[in-house]
Design goal:
It contains 4 helices and 9 strands. It is α/β, with parallel strands linked by helices. The longest helix is centred in the first third of the chain and has 18 residues. The structure holds inosinic acid and magnesium ion (MG).
């Protein structure tokens, strides 16, 4: 049973709702005169993407990018594979990348460089969770839900070996599950 594998809840359902409201309001202000294209990184961002965008009170387009950087381990390999690309020409769009968690930063760094080469008007990053002390590349997100400690976390889209994504909160996974 999934819940027995959780050490403790780090971000509750109520916290998540507050985060989505706060970030949605800020993004609505910042992109008022822009040509917004929200790009969710599959699969981890699915719940954050669907909840956050309902608080963005602007006309916008939505697309997805599926990348793989982890396999079944708990540390980033640095090798990023594009599994599903964005369907449209990015020229002239103000892109907001929506990510579940920023860890080493390697995945998003790769994604940002790839998208930059397609001449969008701008690229911004919204991440639900941040582990700033783990960063190995120079990357600062524009919108952060909250920082989390250097522990492996799951739920609300985040997985361990493709499991736990459907937990309605962010929980710290018991070390015995992955060690
Ligand atoms: P980075 O390339 O090291 O920044 O890793 C980012 C990706 O690794 C995220 O998009 C997640 O898919 C995954 N990841 C990093 N930390 C965690 C975690 O604590 N739980 C679940 N997935 C994680
Ligand atoms: Mg991810």
């Amino acid at each position: 049973m999934a819940y027995q594998d959780i050490e403790k809840v780090l971000v509750s359902e109520e916290d998540l709702k507050e985060i989505n409201k706060r970030l949605g309001a800020q993004i609505t202000k910042d992109f008022a005169d822009k040509n917004l294209l929200v790009v969710g990184i599959l699969k981890g961002s699915i719940y954050f993407m669907t909840d956050l965008t309902r608080y963005i009170n602007l006309p916008c387009k939505i697309d997805f990018l599926a990348v793989s950087s982890y396999g079944s381990g708990t540390t980033s390999s640095g090798a990023v594979r594009i599994i599903k690309d964005i369907d449209i020409n990015l020229e002239g769009y103000d892109i907001l990348i929506v990510e579940d968690i920023l860890d080493s930063g390697r995945t998003l760094n790769y994604v940002c460089n790839m998208l930059k080469s397609r001449n969008p008007a701008s690229i911004s990053i919204a991440t639900l969770l941040d582990k700033p002390e783990r960063r190995v590349v120079d990357l600062t997100p524009d919108y952060v839900g909250c920082d989390v400690p250097d522990e492996f976390v799951v739920g609300y889209g985040l997985d361990y070996d493709q499991r736990y994504r459907n937990l309605p909160y962010i929980g710290q996974l018991k070390r015995e599950i992955y060690e």
